[in-house]
Amino acid sequence: MSIERLALRLEKYGIRLVSGWQGEQREIDYINIQELPLRSERVHPGGFILTTFAAFKDEYEILSHVEWLITRKISALGIHEAGWAVIPDSLLQLSNTNGLPIFTIPVDLSYKEVFKEFNELLLGENDALRVRIEEMNLQLLEAVARDKGVSYIIATLGKYLSSPIVFLDQSLSIVSIWTNNNFNRQEFSLLVKSVLERERDALYREKYLEVGSALTESFSLQHDLVFFVLPIMEKIEKHGYLIIGNNGVEELIINSAIQYGKTALLLDAVKKKSLERFLKNQEIQLLEAVFESRNSLPNRTSNLSSSLKKMSQIYVFHFENEDLINYGFTVIYDKLDGRNSDKIIWIYQQEVICIASTPIEIHNLQEILSSLQGTYCGVSEYMTSKVEKDLLLKYKQAKHCIKLSEQMNVKLILFQDIGVDRFLFMIKEEDSMQEAAKELLQPLLDFDKRNQADLTKTLEVYLKHFFSLKKSAEELFIHRNTVSYRMEKIQELYPGIIFENQNEYLLFSIALRLIK
């Protein structure tokens, strides 16, 4: 409440405001009695300090103490005449110079009357404040119903709190800013962008929390404000981030206003995304049905929406640690701007799938993979999707790249760059070719199964190193004589076959790749 309002209530007791009138509009947050000349850190800003100064030695000690109280940013001072019947002129001058209101309290009056009037006023103000909050809440809900947008909601909340507010989207881009007359909007916008850029990594870690947390101390240097980040969340999905300036005073009613603001922002986001989510869910269901198809798909176009026909490339992210999938999904969704209609990103069979209409920059993929340990990415070739079979083929291509990336311990592989494996993949898509490969290698497979041997792997490595016993032994971690012995066993299974022959070499090399 303001000093002016309290002064009007105290006049009937003979309590008078005798100096520092220019500070009448200051707000009083609490009342405290201090009789001793102690300088305690418990003296907080906004206080109305009551005292007799009876424990102070002289006028100079009083002046020194009041100067210290001014540094603590108290709102007003009440001097009881039981201690000092006449206020020193030097103290009145200090009061007027600093705009510190001083009250005199009659000698026969107790402090309890001051507390009584303060509490009654505070109760009345709180009731009025609750009414204002409910009115603001109705205004916010009406704004959501009439699609007035985020900027209107932010402005409504900012005007009520009289504090600067910023709203960010999931990618930490500024959507809306509101400031009062104490803040230059352009300078404040530049400050926000500067801090966001510097603290981006920390923010990405903090924003997965469901509770608000301090943004950065960088903001607290401006106008004595501390800023807090409050995620706008629906279960685990985040729709944006509210940054609110706070002077450090926690009030239940102010917190209620902030909760109403967060609710309005959430309702607005959910309303806008409900139709988009419905359409995307239908498309995801169709995509999963296509991916799970075990038989060849018909060349039909009836089930493909216009947006799916535009999807030209599929990205599959595989995680060694499945516990990181939800976290990884959020990072990938944010980094690739999953809100846009040109992408669909979701979790499917313990992997994150992204299907996009335009190629994603390689450096963006590399940034994601560098921030997510134990993650691999396979990328299909770039081609339009005329029929469902095209989507299935691209999914298989991306999965094939994932298999290669794990074998080669390379985090990112593009189908267009895999060389001979691209040819082998196309052959593998023909079931007859794969069956032929399995039939050719069946003697080896059966021998390994019966004897718990490893002849199949030995032949693969032997051909890979162009018949070098030494290099094969080094890769298999066995003696070269063991490799020679195994090759003799293999030769017994394939009498008449000369593996060094060019045709036989190609035949068995391809067959071994096809069954992997």
CA-based gyration radius: 37 Å
Q: Number of helical segments?
A: 19
* Name given to the CATH architecture of the largest domain: 2-Layer Sandwich
Strand tally: 15
What topology, given as strand order, has the largest sheet? 1-5-4-3-2
Our measurement of the CA-to-CA distance between the termini, rounded to an integer number of angstroms, reads 77 Å
Q: Might you state the CATH topology name of the largest domain?
A: Beta-Lactamase
Q: Compute the average pLDDT.
A: 81
Beta content comes to 15-25%
Could you estimate the helical fraction of the residues in percent? 40-55%
Unreliable runs: 207-221
Organism: Psychrobacillus faecigallinarum
InterPro entries: CdaR-like_regulators, PucR_C-HTH_dom, PucR_C-HTH_sf, PucR_dom
Coiled coil: 119-146
Pfam families: HTH_30, PucR
Q: How would you characterize this protein structure?
A:
Residues 119-146 form a coiled coil. InterPro entries: CdaR-like_regulators, PucR_C-HTH_dom, PucR_C-HTH_sf, PucR_dom. It comes from Psychrobacillus faecigallinarum. This is PucR family transcriptional regulator. The protein has 516 residues and is of the alpha/beta class. The chain folds into four domains: 3-110, 3-Layer(aba) Sandwich (Udp-n-acetylmuramoylalanyl-d-glutamate--2,6- Diaminopimelate Ligase, Chain: A, domain 1), CATH 3.40.1390.20; 134-272, GAF domain (Beta-Lactamase, 2-Layer Sandwich), CATH 3.30.450; 306-428, Alpha-Beta Plaits, CATH 3.30.70.270; 431-514, Arc Repressor Mutant, subunit A, CATH 1.10.10.2840. Helices cover 51% and strands 15% of the residues.
